[in-house]
Amino acid sequence: MSFNLRSGSAFGDKVNLRAAIREQWRWAHYTVDHGLPFNDIIQVTESASGTIWANSTSGAAWYDGYEWRGTTELKKFRILRPFRGSSVLALEGPNIWIVDKNGMHMQRLVHRGKTLTVSNLGMDREGLVVLECGAMGFFLWEPSSGAVQEMEGPPAGFSGARLRHGEGGGIFAEGPMGLARLTAKGWKPALGKPPYQSKQEMQAFRIRSFGENRNGQGIMSLSLPAAWMGAWEWEGQRQLRLSHETGVEIARMAAISDRGDALLVFNPLQTLLREEGRWAPLDMAPPFLGTATAIFFDRADNLWISTPQGIYCLRTSLSRWTHLEFPFPDLRNHVVSILMRKDGSRWLGSANGLIVVANDGHQKHIANVEGSRLGW
What we know:
Shape: globular
Oligomer: single chain
Strand order of the largest sheet: 2-31-30-29
């Protein structure tokens, strides 16, 4: 006798994103009933070791694979950024916190006797934290040693620049004089001089949406000047290029997976999806995309959607079934019980002992325990 198991990512191939979005069973919806501090979600991110974190208007929580676990203090963080191990960096007002599964610790950063007032931050490709500190300028923080040093800011004309940080370590600054990118040789203009037609265009220039995957592939949507409106794409330190497939409308949300699939959400009725390098409208988009505040792909290419009604997760790496069978007449084919542990492994009780199927697909056979045979 053979048997089937409902399985996770280790057992199934990646699926077509467009098809996966249509399959209702792939969607999970998480709310306060599943451990979230509050249903109004600002963002979802992933730590360096793969822990999923949610930032709500009433505090942060991390996902253990089954439910959400809140931090010891409920604080309203403006931003969560991936940090070392399972931890994240969080901004609460001008204060930086390191938040991990065991609690949170505020970091007081001082340079030349002055406490830094941090308005934004990002991790560069060398593991240093770039700090945007308003009128004080830009600084580099080395968390291991605690050292803080002043860094040269973006080029002249970028006073009041705002940081944008990607999963691949890309850091951009937007300001009145356009867009700058942090390189190994410092800040460099990313798109040249903006072709503004009026002072109003200069004041309205913004990165409206931004996403970068862990391979350094990115996408952003710019609003004004008119010649720059639309979606810009890049890879690593290569020149940004304007996509001619996405049109000139402004996307309010953008995300790109590690395998290169991407989403641009314009409004509740208009979403573009890119697969295999081609953009096309997403028909029958989920209704909660219309109220979403952020979208995010994790390392497993699962899509996390933050909304005021909780978190929706599209489990693209999840396969409904896998088929396991041992060569006849192996008694392990006669399965009488199945148990799924919190770590995601599956324990099968058979006529010839226990079969343990780990998350990575590895199988272990336990035929005896302390000298006693298991099974029939």
